[in-house]
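Consider the record:
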Amino acid sequence: MLKIAIYGKGGIGKSTVTSNLAASFAYLGKKVIQIGCDPKADSTINLCGGETPIPVMNYLREYDEDPETIEEISKVGYKDVLCIETGGPTPGLGCAGRGIIATFSLLEDLELFEQHEPDVVLYDVLGDVVCGGFAAPIREGYASKVLIVTSGEKMALYAANNINTAVKNFEDRSYAKVHGIILNHRNVENETEKVKEFADKAGLPIVGEIPRSNEINRFEDQGMTVIEGDPSCAVSQCFLQLAKELLEQMEEEEC
């Protein structure tokens, strides 16, 4: 099973990257689960035609009891990607990180992975603050690889550095390690050079580059990923190529 946590600064496009990767894996015939770990609960919106599943934290507040089945807190999206959103606390009350921890505990109780036996699991995780809850996919063994999404913008690179440092703090515990950087282009001046300089200093490869594309925005306006909208277009091919490479690496590691 390929288990990847995708981190990045809020607004950097990590949800777009994650959902298009999920769609790519599904397009390639893999059984995929995507879990959104952001209080905004919008990670899976473009996999589900513009309608997200009820966030787990919302469900718990509304019904004041745990769900009995995964189906109550999930939605099946494009090519049967199983979509789950953790959600967050009531605004101004509680800790969003605790919501992630509570959700992961609930998913274990419901035997999500045993029941669905996915080939790929993707976690879309806010990376502005890597507190205990937002670090859960790293430190609890849910993910085996971390991908960091960044552009050449100063604050995006600052967040990427914080995420990389946080993951390194768990290096001696056999937890997830940073696999590489995804450069999500924002047309910043000397962007490729800036990200390459950061990656070189961090000792990390740039494993994928996503060009600035109006196609992504056009299909997101229709509630879909660019993979669903047009798998043959140039930006879709970037996502598909990255998905293929990740699968090939997984197969090599299992041999």
In short: The two ends are 13 Å apart (CA to CA). The chain has a mean pLDDT of 91. Strands lie at 2-8, 32-37, 75-76, 82-85, 120-126, 145-150, 177-184, 206-210.
